[in-house]
Amino acid sequence: MAVVLEVRDLIKSYGDLVAVNGISFVVQQGQCFGLLGPNGAGKTTTMEMLEGLVSADSGDILYQGRIAKRSDFQQLGVQFQQTALQDFLTVRETLQLFAAFYEEPADIEELIQLCDLSDFLTQDHRKLSGGQRQRLLLALALVNQPKILFLDEPTTGLDPHARRNFWQLIAKIKQQGRTIILTTHYMDEAEFLCDEIVIMAKGQIIARNSPQALLAEHFSGALIRLPDRGMQPQLPAAQWHMSNGFLHINSQDVEASIRQLLNEGFSLEGLYIKSANLDDLFLKLTGQSLSEVGEVA
Ligand code: ATP
Q1: How far apart are the first and last CA of the chain?
Q2: pTM of the predicted model, to two decimals?
Q3: Same domain, yes or no, for 51 and 167?
Q4: 17 inside domain
């Protein structure tokens, strides 16, 4: 696979605050690449530099192997968290207006079909539901036929049904061979959509790989969780940690672990056993649950 984007040692400070502190990564053609991290980790600043909206203090951004130029940024598709649209326009008129900005816009009818907009084409865009508005914003981000699509928390605030609809749509766009770079606070979204993720904290990358490889790298066996009752298990420190009012144990042998806990006098009241997912990884690496990070219901 060809590398479409390479980031080398990117640094950006705001006054004394180092928002992005020396990050490097590559994105392959056709990948869905996820940026995850707690609030203030530097995800949006990174996206803004990649989109050419904010200039880096140092480091390089390369598109297709060349240092990024203004013309590269113009060929990107960007769906922002908030986009101001012209008032009093219908959905179709909004699409037509955006298409008029470009020399070679996408076919509007194809976009309408792809993003499932036909049921509300004549509606004023201010009257759309959250999910419909996100689909319109996605269509607008695709209007210049970008090879790389940036999505900044595209499903924040949507209900579960609308989120899943949106995922199907992203999967369709990915099948067209487009490269997608997205930030999200939802671990299930990252697990469903992303081929590769980086987890950022305090401006740095603390983990990078496919979701499956990261889980295999950091967990094996099952996770046991018990309410924190002030007791510590007689286990190697690498196998357990306390956070958010719970004792978490990474167990290779659930039965043996439960027996040991009982022998040590732990109560099994509130016991929870499951295999690890990205939220557990995030918690392990950042000390925060991904579901606590954003406006997740
Ligand atoms: P969130 O998940 O909350 O969107 P984030 O990971 O996207 O967070 P950034 O928005 O990139 O994080 O912010 C990184 C740090 O840089 C934060 O401490 C933020 O307050 C700071 N920051 C971002 N933009 C600016 C700015 N324009 N001026 C000053 N500080 C900024």
Answers
A1: 38
A2: 0.83
A3: yes
A4: yes
pLDDT digits (tens, 9 = 90+) for 276-293: 888 888 888 887 766 555
Domain hosting residue 23, numbered range: 3-216
* 53 Cβ closer than 6 Å to some ligand 1 atom: no
What is the SS3 assignment for 201? strand
Q: Name the closest-CA residue to atom 1, ligand 1.
A: 39
Query: How many CB atoms neighbour CB 274 within 10 A?
Result: 10
Residue 288: inside a domain, yes or no? no
| Cα 273 to ligand 1 centre (Å) | 36
Total number of domains in the chain: 2
Compute, in angstroms, the gap from residue 7 CA to the centroid of ligand 1: 19
Neighbour count for residue 230 (Cβ, 10 Å): 6
- Distance separating alpha carbons of residues 57 and 20, to the nearest angstrom: 10
40 in ligand 1 pocket by Cβ < 6 Å? yes
Residues 131 and 8 in one domain: yes
